[in-house]
């Protein structure tokens, strides 16, 4: 790539001992020429091949040839849902708040907004603030909301000096943490919970109703939990699965995918926190009435993540009578194909099946509940199903996004490498460039989500969610059935991520100071 150096005439290199200090120039090119050339370079760099949203991405090298046992969560893994499911959860919890917690009848008129929040955010329970945090525990200041109202950058700085969130405040490494302080939205079932919380918070502010954020959170959290624990949501969905199940792609490919694994001699198991009658209704639609014949072990109401950390004496397996969904009192001494089980624990699971360590690949959508303990404690290989990835890739493939991201990188390179010049014209131009860079950052954020941007980034930095995904998932993709595009013997190789200190020899920066000043 031809650098900007052709536009400059002569520069005096930094004096010995000054390091990267400042360059002094006796002649500097016109800022307009620098800007124009940079834009052309950015345009050239934006012309790259599109990424397929059916791709499986690797954080860690993994050979499917070595995987003998394939395990799957159900919700948002084997089964994908329409936004209508979260709307159902929202509405049931809303009615429960009025009925059991005596909240104002006015809130019954609320309508669920599926685009108000997104996965990966943090909710500060004591302050009543929703925000996005990056991998370094820094808050992205333009993403802090109180109810529906954005909090000013000045107030964010006052509440969180340096925009920093202490490790003592944020959720722990395994996602547990002190839930009295902060809650992370780690799965898609969290969206109706936080949407309802934000809606009521805003209602109380508008009506000037005094309230404590902790009490509001506890009430909403309890009512949403009751939607799941009571089985109300499960029963409604089981009565009409087609109304809630999404993805024609999954319906067409899930059975062939599972059959191919079985025919290749792989062992398959299903482990979910949902009850049997619920997954049975869904899998009959997705796979067929004989879906249980494809799985060697079926475990329901597993109570993950506790399943992975408790000992064999904590919660033994129980057999499920699939005819009436009742449970047997007889002890379970082995896990048999064709049977359905409830609860259990990892220790007993390993003892009864002999399946352990890196021969097991388990898929789930919940980075903590499904993937953290299997990866860190038990040595399983793990795969994350992140349905939002499909939309993110579609966005990143657009010409608008690619040009904007390339131009932002070029501007940042100009700003960085010309920050020490004493040329008045450059100094004036740099101020304009920084303003344009900030506008580009906001535009790129808005392209993904008008409030919170990309699930995976906080501007240039990885998001908190992205960093955890990279640690706990060997591979990730938008849909489980994307694996049908790969042979069962395929090896996934992670791309070598360029570190900041490697950029000069791994991939040349768009501009370097020596390009501009020669």
Question: Can you describe this structure in just a few lines?
Answer:
The protein has helices at residues 31-45, 83-101, 153-159, 190-206, 213-229, 232-239, 248-263, 276-286, 306-309, 346-353, 367-376, 388-396, 399-417, 424-448, 464-472, 503-506, 513-516, and strands at residues 10-12, 24-27, 57-58, 62-63, 69-72, 122-124, 129-131, 145-146, 149-150, 182-184, 267-271, 297-300, 317-321, 326-327, 340-343, 360-364, 381-385, 457-458, 461-462, 475-477, 491-492. By secondary structure, the chain is α/β, with parallel strands linked by helices. Strand 6 and strand 7 (129-131) form a beta hairpin.
Describe what this molecule looks like in 3D:
Helices cover 39% and strands 13% of the residues. A hairpin with a 2-residue loop joins strand 18 (457-458) and strand 19. By secondary structure, it is an alpha/beta fold.
Helix-and-strand structural type? alpha/beta
* Radius of gyration, in angstroms, nearest whole number: 26 Å
Helix count? Answer: 17
Q: What is the helix content? A: 25-40%
Low-confidence stretches: 1-27, 505-518
- Euclidean distance between termini CA atoms: 16 Å
Q: What fraction strand?
A: 5-15%
Q: Looking at the structure, what is the overall shape?
A: globular
The description of the largest β-sheet is: 10 strands, mixed
- Overall residue-averaged pLDDT value: 87
- Strand tally: 21
| Spatial arrangement of strands, main beta sheet | 3-20-17-16-5-11-12-15-13-14
Fill in the keyword field for this structure:
17 helices, globular, disordered N terminus, disordered C terminus, 10-stranded mixed sheet, about 525 residues, 3-stranded antiparallel sheet, alpha/beta, about 40% helix
